[in-house]
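Researcher: We're teaching a course module on how sequence relates to structure. For the next exercise, students receive a sequence and then see the predicted structure as tokens, so they can try to spot secondary structure elements on their own. Here is the exercise chain.
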Amino acid sequence: MKRVLLWTVMSACLLGLAPSLGAQDESRAEREARRAAERLEREQERVERAQQRAAEQARRSEERLQRRLNRQFDGDDGAHILLGQDYELPEGSTTTENVVILGGSATINGHAENDVVVVGGSIRLGPKSVVDGDVSVVGGDLDRDPAAQVAGEVHVAHVSVPWSRDWRWPAGFPGVNRFWWEGAALAFTMGRFALVLFLSILFVTLAPRGTSSIAGRLVTGPGVSSIAGFAGEILFAPAMVCLAVLLIITIVGIPLLAGLPLVAAAFALTWVGGYAAVAGLLGARLRGTDWYVHGIRPVDVFIGSCLLSSITFIGQVLMLSPGWLAPFALMVRGTGWMIEYIAWTMGLGAALLVWLRPNGFNPGSVPPVVPPLPSPSPSVT
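Model: And here is the predicted structure for the students to work with:
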């Protein structure tokens, strides 16, 4: 009897708990279904927003492309070209021109409706920059913010040569731009050589007797010519300053200040004449000609000038080599400079001495002219 009662009570309890357990299972399933529906809805919203952003970007790109095509067919808006200067387009500004920078950098924070080209510099595109054209960098870097908009193509060309790497010997030389500095120095040396050669040949052609007189003074007294040339180099600038001060003090001589550039030009011409004589003597010796008889020829000046400047040229070319050759290159170039300096100093001194004593040749320096022997008379048989 007790067992029957116990089973009855337990059955009643189980029958009472069954609806509540079923309700709990049902409510859990509903919650999971609701959560799945919410996740699906959120995913659909994200997909829709991404599609909207893609459509908006495509629309903007199409508009920029259309504006670019319109400018291409409607005409050119010109170009904004800067040499050796930096360019900055501030935020909120718009330019319709092509931006071309040579030897500088460009910072774009506004709207550039055309191409941006930088050669020998860098370009920085800010977060709010918009470039409808192409962006091109040659020999520099591109610093582009992820939010920057470029409708055209992006070109970055790095210029690298084996000898343009970081080179810190001697101290004070720039490492990155060393190749450009040495290239400019080589170009300047070539231009200087061409100019001096042209003036020297012109001097020899127009004043052959003066060139011969300077050459004779060099042959008879090279040491005295060197001392006189060094003194002329040291004293010319102070003499010009003293002359200018004297003319200003006298008041009457103030109009004569306009003649000081002529004095400087005459001194430079005298210097060139002395160098032409040195180069001519050297060239005549190399050719084996007698300058006493034939005089200084332009070809002698050309040969002598090439020889005097050859070591300087070699040194300048070696300066473009890798860093481990730098000490040797500096030594060669310094030797070439010293040779040229000695030639210029000796020539200047001889020219100044000839100018102070314009008597032409020193008779002691010219060998006597031996008359030709008379031809033998035919024997009478």
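Model: If you want an answer key for the exercise: Confidence is low (pLDDT under 50) at residues 72-76, 161-176, 360-371. Residues 164 and 177 are 7 Å apart (CA to CA).
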